[in-house]
Amino acid sequence: xxxxxxxxxxxxSILYLCRHYHKLFMNVVKNRRNxxxxxGFKSQELERAIRAHANFCETVPLIIILxxxxxxxxLLFFSVSSLIILSIGRTIHSKAISSINxxxxxxxxxxxxxxxxxxxxxxxxxxxxxxxxxxxxxxx
Length: 140
Description:
The chain is an all-alpha fold.
């Protein structure tokens, strides 16, 4: 039962991250159309939208790959925890950085949650490695 709940939460987190990526992408497109800028940036609002989108693209794929490793090795607790923390962190960070009146405390919180999400994934992978070593030596 708990496995099904974890899988549903995991998949919903992936869908949320995809939706959030699309939202950030469309924000860049909207700002480019408003400023009639095809490349580069002419306004601070466009620059912030570009950076929010780029920061998302720079951090999320690696953490999703790490969570896939955990997911496919049945370490759902680590993978689900990592993605939930990542979703919260990236949402807080992108809202803070997109605003011209940036709340630096929220931006830092978003960055910390993102790195904590990566830490949870790495911790899960170390746990998996240790269980492999343990079972390899317990068989002999």
